[in-house]
Design goal:
Keywords: DNA-binding, Transcription, Transcription regulation. The chain is of the alpha+beta class and 293 residues long. Helix content is 44%, strand content 18%.
């Protein structure tokens, strides 16, 4: 067994841990239980996890819980105390302190005045947005991306991205030049949350895409998805992913209906220009790409 095969074994084991974390964010996560899921020694598995993923398992859990909490604050009326409890905090004060350290404001202020609120005036007719009003019409070349399917809340599409990165690592395909792309098929305001369909994808440099064809054909976990070429309305969004719902509402409800353009019969996609593992939520940059006729 060569070095690549050894790494693949570890990737497979730790992928099971990530799946368990995503599916049990409401529950206390026992380190010993995670070691059992990884089939690794409880003395060493977390060091392996940190070495391979660049962050401790505790950091992963905190990041995912706060990411979800921001979504609850921006897009629901769930009481903050309940959000704190679901995020694994024993007190509201502890949750507020941690949330503020990551998002720059306490939870109540984020709900009232967070970056998602900048989309609301234009939607309600009370005013115009100052900094996100501009949409660029851009021609996008057709693309073929490697992708992993996701069914469920869009805020949890990171689970599919983690599975995809594990597959790429197993096949020695992690490239700094790759582009991260999410494809979203359903309207979250119409389709039940647990039935929302999306894909986590990466665009690899051309020569590498040709090389992976055989590996994809032999592995049903990853597929090739084609993204149509043509004109797109591109909204460059800076801020937490929890703002995205409000951004979409503005893009469709304000910009599109006033633009004189028609949406094409193709799904919207997002391109992520930096990583939530290395970037503060307020500095995340996402391009929302709406296909046009």
């Amino acid at each position: 067994m060569n070095e690549s095969d050894h790494r693949a074994r570890y990737e497979t084991r730790l992928a099971r841990v990530l799946d368990h974390i995503y599916d049990h964010l409401d529950e206390p996560l026992d380190i010993g239980r995670l070691a059992d899921i990884a089939c690794l020694s409880p003395y060493h598995w977390h060091r392996i996890y940190q070495a391979m993923y660049g962050e401790t398992v505790a950091t992963t859990v905190r990041r995912l819980r706060l990411h979800r909490a921001a979504g609850f604050l921006a897009n629901s009326s769930m009481p903050i105390a309940q959000i704190a409890e679901r995020s694994g905090y024993s007190s509201l004060q502890s949750f507020s302190r941690t949330f503020r350290a990551v998002f720059g404001v306490p939870p109540a202020q984020y709900r009232r005045q967070g970056t998602h609120c900048r989309f609301r005036p234009a939607l309600s007719g009370d005013g115009q947005m100052a900094s996100v009003r501009e949409v660029e019409i851009r021609y996008v070349e057709p693309m073929e991306i490697l992708s992993v399917d996701h069914v469920g809340p869009y805020m949890q599409v990171g689970k599919a991205f983690d599975a995809l990165f594990g597959w790429l690592a197993k096949h020695n395909l992690l490239e700094a030049q790759m582009r991260m792309i999410g494809v979203y098929f359903d309207d979250a305001g119409v389709v039940e949350e647990q039935a929302l369909r999306s894909k986590a994808g990466v665009l690899l440099p051309g020569p590498l895409m040709a090389e992976v064809a055989s590996a994809v054909a032999m592995d049903g976990a990853v597929s090739v998805t084609r993204i149509r070429g043509g004109e797109y309305a591109v909204l460059r969004h800076v801020g937490p992913y929890s703002d995205m719902r409000a951004a979409y509402e503005w893009l469709y409800g304000s910009w599109l209906v006033q633009s004189g353009r028609e949406a094409a019969d193709a799904p919207v996609f997002e391109e992520y220009l930096n990583s939530p593992k290395e970037t503060a939520p307020a500095e995340l940059v996402t391009e929302i790409c709406l296909p046009l006729e």
